[in-house]
Amino acid sequence: PADLDAFRKKHADNKGIGAALKEIFSSIGSMPKTMKQVALVQFFTWPGLFLMWFYYSVAVARNVFGAEDGTQAYTEGIEFAGLTLAYYNLITFLFALALPWLASKLSMKVTHALCLTAGGLGLISVKFVGDPNMLFLSMTGVGIAWASILSMPYAMLGNSLPKEKSGHLYGHFQLLYCAARDHCQPRFRLGNGICSRQRPLGCSNVGRSAHAIGSRT
């Protein structure tokens, strides 16, 4: 810091749990507009991802392979779904190499919105897939979205946060989206038994809707 004595005095005055909590809530309340917008997008994005991770494999086995639990076809469906999930991670790796160029041409905001839209459309398309091989096309959209989810929000924040507060604001941002993620996770797991036995594709559709909402937020 430019004024080391003032920096030390400020931190000396802010010692203790009470002061720390006061600083946290004060910072959350005064978050920059961009940070609030990105946090809202993350709030809708992560539930969609969790629903996909929970129910996608079962939905493929049941609705694409038309199989019942315990059959060979069901096992093949689960294994094929795993293959397509691995494929979307490959797409993520490759598309991440093009993200900086794309963001420089379209802006980071537009790039992230388009990538989330690709992911939402990819997930929605699973409902209409009849040929299992078409799932690779669906997961291409998901891979594109995942590449952006892991990078664009932080890049957008980097250009909008004040440098003197960037460290703890990044921490608050992580706290906000982790809270949204962890709030959803146990509730999704609570319904896992019902959804996996009855309507796995319907449960996964909720995730697709959340993903699409995130892209438009």
Structure description:
The model is unreliable at 202-215 (pLDDT under 50). This protein has helices at residues 4-13, 17-29, 33-64, 72-96, 99-106, 108-126, 135-149, 152-158, 166-190, 192-197, 200-216. Helix 3 runs antiparallel to helix 11. The chain is mostly helical and 217 residues long. The protein starts with a helix and ends with a helix.
Rg, alpha carbons? 21 Å
Counting copies of identical and different chains, the oligomeric state is single chain
Question: How far is the first residue's CA from the last residue's CA?
Answer: 37 Å
Biggest β-sheet, characterized? none
Determine the mean pLDDT: 77
Name the helicity range: over 70%
Q: What structural class results from the helix and strand content?
A: mainly alpha
Note the main attributes of this structure.
single chain, 217 residues, mainly alpha, 11 helices, 82% helix
List the helices and strands and how they pair.
Blueprint: H1 4-13, H2 17-29, H3 33-64, H4 72-96, H5 99-106, H6 108-126, H7 135-149, H8 152-158, H9 166-190, H10 192-197, H11 200-216
Q: How do you describe this structure in short?
A:
It is built from eleven helices and no strands.
